[in-house]
Amino acid sequence: MTSAHAADPWRVVAPLAGDRSLRGLAATKRLRPEQRSALEHRLIVREYRRHAIIYRPGETADSLYVILAGVARLSLPMSSGRRVLLHLLPSGEMFGHSALVEAGTPRVFEAAAYTDLRLGRVTARSFLEALAGKHGELVSLLTERWLTLSVRLARFLVQNLRARVAASLIEAARGFGVPDARGHVLALRITQNAIAELSAGSLRKVNAVLRSFEQEGLISKQGGRIVLHQLRELEDLARDG
């Protein structure tokens, strides 16, 4: 791996957000030790500043990316200029799987740095070589990601905005929540704009929902971070909306 940051590059700082593994493990944790070692040696490492674009829709998909530090965001830009935020992915996760479809396949989503980010890039061919013909982990990961996107689409179609905002907060808590006496504190600073993009709603309307959640005692903002005080009630809102 070409980087000065070679010490324990696979350290996972938070579980997967958005398309969380059924086992609560980030993607690289599902690889066998020999696969992870082979993959590590094939990575080309690069650092990105916050908000930097990694790739855009329509660009040729020829590589996958492993998140070594920081948080990446995957979104779907709309013709209106708005974005639907699909995933916030922490250290230990992978993205760019469209590179595995076939040569010349275009990217569908936009990938960007949500925080300062360190990525390891690997070509699709090198990635498959690292798996050494044992692809069960890859099939599991791709299946879960597809199911998550399907569920998110269904949610956008049938849920009201309050339910979608509640579901987005729950996903953030699963990925970046730290339990304490107050409830679940989101360790990652998630902006109201990001919540709006996760919930497929306008910033004005999503802010109104967040204010109503605060008034109802479901959430609060303390020290610049969102605290979820009543996770069970938010889950009920997301399920019943």
Most strands sheet: 4 strands, antiparallel
**Within the largest sheet, what's the order of strands?**
1-8-3-6
Query: First CA to last CA: what distance?
Result: 47 Å
Q: What's the domain count?
A: 2
What is the SS-derived class? alpha+beta
- Total E-strand runs: 12
What are the secondary-structure elements, in order, as H or E? Answer: HEEEEEEEEHHHEEHHEEH
Low-confidence stretches: 2-25
pLDDT averaged over residues: 81
- Helix amount: 25-40%
**CATH homologous superfamily of the largest domain?**
Jelly Rolls
The shape, in one word, is globular
Q: Calculate Rg over CA atoms.
A: 18 Å
Approximate strand percentage? 15-25%
Output the number of helix runs: 7
The CATH class of the largest domain is: Mainly Beta
Q: Please name the CATH topology of the largest domain.
A: Jelly Rolls
Brief sketch in words of this structure:
The protein is built from seven helices and twelve strands. The chain is of the alpha+beta class and 241 residues long.
Q: What does this 3D model show about the protein?
A:
- It is a single chain.
- With 241 residues, the protein is α+β, with helices and mostly antiparallel strands.
- It has 2 domains: 27-156, Jelly Rolls; 160-240, Arc Repressor Mutant, subunit A, CATH 1.10.10.
- It is 36% helix and 24% strand.
- The strands form 3 sheets. It has a 4-stranded antiparallel sheet. A 4-stranded antiparallel sheet has the order 2-7-4-5.
- A hairpin with a 5-residue loop joins strand 4 (72-77) and strand 5 (83-89).
- Residues 2-25 have low confidence and may be disordered.
